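From the methods appendix. Each design record in this collection lists the tokenized structure first, followed by the designed amino acid sequence. Records were kept in a plain field format so they could be parsed without special tools. The example shown here is representative of the layout used throughout.

RECORD:
FOLD TOKENS (224 positions):
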């Protein structure tokens, strides 16, 4: 079982609110102990099934969702699609034993912002949660290598015209480079709200539901 790193009892500390979806009790409780026992983090809810999580998670107000993929009943990949509809902007990170191309591709296309293996060291796991919350896309090293190879192997359609405006195209390019909304707004010299407006239009035109999906599609179809 994963052990907590640093117990936090300091009042008035702001926490990164994390929801865990994991069917194995020992892993679920270990993750909850790690997260709630570390300063700056709190596990606000944990669920053993995706169906239960979907019924209750709206009231948990998570800052980030950490989910297994191999769940009983509804799979984590299918669940991510439903979670993305409830929380369009909330980071969702897959934490799983699966490291095959199909699982990785399906999870990212369903709306996952990151993909970590369960052998990820506790300290790195906590860093990855912060990274995802800041707009990043944390991945285990071997997963990142597979993703790069997958993108290289994909061939774009003969023609893809999504009618992106020049500013939308520039914003998409910044997202691919790793920028999040605030830094993209600074680079483009526009407001945070204008970036959100352009991002919404990009999602609609590309028919995706998250920044990760938009970046994946842009790379796959060489849109920028």
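DESIGN:
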């Amino acid at each position: 079982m994963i052990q907590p790193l640093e117990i936090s009892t300091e009042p008035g500390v702001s926490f990164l609110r994390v929801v865990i979806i994991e069917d194995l009790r020992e892993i679920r409780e270990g993750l909850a102990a790690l997260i709630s026992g570390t300063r700056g983090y709190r596990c606000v809810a944990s669920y053993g099934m995706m169906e239960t999580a979907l019924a209750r998670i709206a009231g948990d107000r998570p800052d980030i969702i950490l989910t297994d993929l191999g769940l009983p009943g509804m799979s984590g990949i299918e669940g991510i699609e439903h979670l993305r509809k409830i929380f369009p902007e909330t980071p969702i990170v897959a934490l799983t034993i699966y490291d095959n191309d199909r699982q990785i591709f399906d999870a990212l296309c369903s709306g996952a912002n990151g993909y970590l293996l369960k052998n990820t060291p506790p300290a790195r796991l906590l860093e990855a949660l912060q990274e995802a919350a800041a707009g990043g896309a944390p991945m285990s090293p071997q997963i990142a290598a597979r993703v790069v190879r997958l993108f290289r192997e994909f061939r774009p359609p003969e023609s893809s015209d999504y009618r992106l405006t020049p500013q939308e195209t520039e914003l998409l390019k910044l997202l691919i480079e790793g920028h999040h909304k605030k830094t993209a707004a600074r680079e483009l010299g526009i407001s945070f709200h204008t970036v959100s407006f352009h991002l919404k239009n990009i999602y609609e035109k590309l028919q995706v539901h998250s920044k990760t999906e938009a970046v994946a599609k842009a790379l796959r179809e060489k849109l920028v």
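APPENDIX NOTE: Residues 192-206 form the longest helix (15 residues).
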